[in-house]
């Protein structure tokens, strides 16, 4: 099956802890993205990567970090510097980074709760 | 930076009726896309319309784009209870990531 997976589905974090959310795709897509979604809200871009070993900040990067060591993987770390991390996190990927950005494929999401 | 603004924020209709959602945006775009999200799930791509297209159909979906008014509409005909979801528009400009709106929550009552 081709697709994009995220794990875990639910994650609980104590204040002051760093946690890492996993995102893997086997679609051979160049570009990958992380979004945050708060209740009743749209998607806000955290980080994106258009090619391996390169990534750019999105609109709300503070308190988050990413890496892109492999084409298929784009993990997101929520650091203790992120003051309000409780949210639904969505990972997405798309083909090629040149020209128009076409269809994005989304994972099922990770719901992070800070205790 | 959220460019797309969907209208209405919430819509409730009876099964069998048509549902129309609108999206307005601010800057020039290369394409506009519509996505659907069931509660607690990831988004699913519905349809993409390019800036040089005015209308596109896919099954019970009809999308229009008016670049002079910087607006788009999504029409779902003969709605079903299973169409209950949130619908988002997203605008694409060149090589930058898509920008999503806040969505319209559609409830279809059986």
Describe this structure as you would to a colleague.
The complex is a heterodimer of chains A (115) and B (110). Chain A is mainly beta and 115 residues long. Chain A is 0% helix and 49% strand. The radius of gyration of chain A is 13 Å and the shape is globular. The relative contact order of chain A is 0.33. The termini of chain B are far apart. Chain B is globular. Helices cover 0% and strands 55% of the residues of chain B. In chain B, the strands form two sheets. In chain B, strands 2, 4, 5, 9, 10 and 11 form a six-stranded mixed sheet that branches. Chain B has a five-stranded antiparallel sheet with strand order 1-3-8-7-6, with no helix packed on it. Chain B is mostly beta strands. The model of chain B has no long low-confidence stretch (mean pLDDT 94).
Mean pLDDT of chain A, rounded to whole units? 92
The helix-strand sequence of chain B is EEEEEEEEEEE
Instruction: State the total count of DSSP E strands of chain A.
Output: 11
Strand content of chain A: over 45%
Low-confidence stretches of chain A: none
The main β sheet of chain A shows up as:
7 strands, mixed
Helix/strand class of chain B: mainly beta
Number of helices of chain B: 0
* Poorly predicted runs of 5 or more residues of chain B: none
C-alpha Rg of chain B (nearest Å): 13 Å
The two chains with the largest interface, and their residue counts, are: A-B, 29 and 28 residues
State the separation between the terminal residues of chain A, measured CA to CA. 35 Å
Secondary-structure element series of chain A: EEEEEEEEEEE
Determine the N-to-C terminus distance of chain B.
Answer: 37 Å
Rg over alpha carbons of chain A: 13 Å
Give a count of the beta strands of chain B, DSSP E runs of length 2 or more: 11
Biggest β-sheet description of chain B: 6 strands, mixed
What percentage of residues of chain A falls in helices of 4 or more residues?
A: under 10%
